[in-house]
Design brief:
Layout lengths: L3 E5 L4 H12 L3 E6 L11 E4 L5 H10 L4 E4 L5 H6 L1 H22 L3 E3 L2 E2 L23 H20 L2 E7 L1 E3 L12 H11 L2 E4 L7 E5 H13 L9 E3 L3 E3 L1 H9 L6 E4 L3 H6 L9 H7 L7 H14 L1
Parallel strand pairs: 1-2, 1-4, 2-3, 4-5, 5-7, 6-7, 7-11, 8-10, 9-13
Antiparallel strand pairs: 10-12
Helix pairs in contact: 1-7, 2-4, 4-5, 6-8
Length: 310
Amino acid sequence: MNKQVLITGSSGQISSELIPELTARGYSIIATDVKLPKTEFEYEVFEILDVRQKKEMERLVSKYDISLIIHNASILSAKGEQDPSLALDVNFEGTRNVLEVARDAEVEKVFSPSSIAAFGPETPKENTPNDVITRPKTIYGISKVFTELLGEYFWGKYQLDFRCLRYPGIITPNSIPSGGTTDWAIEMFFEALNNGNYRCFVNKDTQLPMMSMRDCVRGTLEFLEVDSKKLTHRTYNVTGISFTPAELYNEIKTHLPSLKIEYLPDYRQQIADTWPKSIDDNFARRDWGWQNSDDLKSITKWMIDSLKSK
């Protein structure tokens, strides 16, 4: 396989940590985003790309002879509810453009992440199965179901090797939270070290599935590289652990005993209430060997040590 990879949303949380690992594995990265990165992150190649501009996407795929597209550009859940029209444009039209351009240019593989936001209030909350009713109530969640189904359609009709992971909340010390409903799990660490107190935007007993970024990146790479013949699905659940703000708070306090917390739920509480408490990812474990490494204790120590070192 030609290792020319075009990544949309390259300045985002996951892309910024996935790119160095892809580079280390010998992939040539063409990073794209709607504006220049704010940080001094060194990209091998960087191009401005708005995923709503299909012609420009076609030009870049042709120019760099792309064999893999990683489509990470997206308006997240909280921001999507604040501006549904923008989420419709970026999340729906962008995904359609990626799949059509990949098909027409005979790109070998497309990866686009989904999310636990794809599930809705009718979905079973405990050990949510891989194949289950979704019916999300946010525009972000609806866009993720659209991505899953349209990608599967392109696989069945055009044999485009589409792959998708339903990510839980992703925890990392390396980026500022940017509009996700699970961002309390990162914000609490930042505020614990910066201010010694945190105002949490969901209730203390709101349990949600989470995963460390290092597990997320490793799992994504493994999924990208597994032989397609081993896959029984195009979209897989993956998860690490589930916990509540109260459980995270108590674990952080073992390192930072003076931390104070106040629970002030906002509109994101209603979003979180429609999401699962825990995820069944047995298909991923069976088909391509997915296995998480981090638990709550190891995530907490990693986050605090990393943030202190900064």
